[in-house]
Amino acid sequence: MDTLAILGTAEGATFALFAVFTVATAVGVVITRSPVYAAMNLVGSFFFLAGIYVLLAAHLIAFMQILVYAGAVMVLFLFVIMLLSLGDEHLGRGPRRAMQWVGVLGAVGLLSVVAAAVGRVQDEMPALSSPRTFGTVKAVGQKLFTEFLLPFEVTSLLLLVAIVGAVVVAKERI
Question: What dotted CATH number matches 1-89?
Fold first, then answer.
């Protein structure tokens, strides 16, 4: 199917809208100098990404995206930012031209790799069939707590260590 024909549908137009706003807020995370504004842009990006998940009929993943990432994890990030009281004073105003050029070159390289990968994709992708239980709470829970239990627990341990580390760093400054 032609790309313009896909974008002509309501689903395609909604996807394009969500994709543009997701990328815009993600760029806002990288560009903004204030950590609080960066965190708020990240929340916006999470919400728009959840909208894309809804369009993909992955309602559970969209719900978890909002509940876990936009809710709990971002509250944790904002708590750490406020606890460390990061303001604009810690940001250097000196010239960093070399690192900026390295960043631009990295972005151009990444964009060229993505463009090459998209160019190699076939025009007509074969239709994928998924079982009726795909994406249900039961199927995701069974996969998460059987096959992916160790990565799940390691992630929770990593978050706990990050919280303790932030408190220790903030305690030394108080």
Answer: 1.20.120.1200
Report how far residue 26's alpha carbon sits from residue 48's, in angstroms, rounded to the nearest whole number. Answer: 10
Residues 19 and 51 sit within 8 Å (Cβ to Cβ): no
Sign of the CA dihedral 106, 107, 109, 113? positive
CA distance 51 to 74: 18
Predicted local confidence at residue 127, as pLDDT: 66
Q: Is 126 helix (H, G, I), strand (E, B) or coil?
A: coil
The CA-based angle 19-22-23, given to 5 degrees, is 85
Please state the domain extents for the chain. Answer: 1-89, 131-174
* pLDDT tier at 105, thresholds 50, 70, 90: very high
Rounded to 10 degrees, the C-alpha dihedral 153/156/157/159 comes to 160
The residue among 80, 53, 75, 79 whose CA lies nearest residue 64 is 53
- Is pTM beyond 0.85? Reply is no
Give the residue from 140, 146, 1, 162 showing the smallest Cα distance to 60: 140
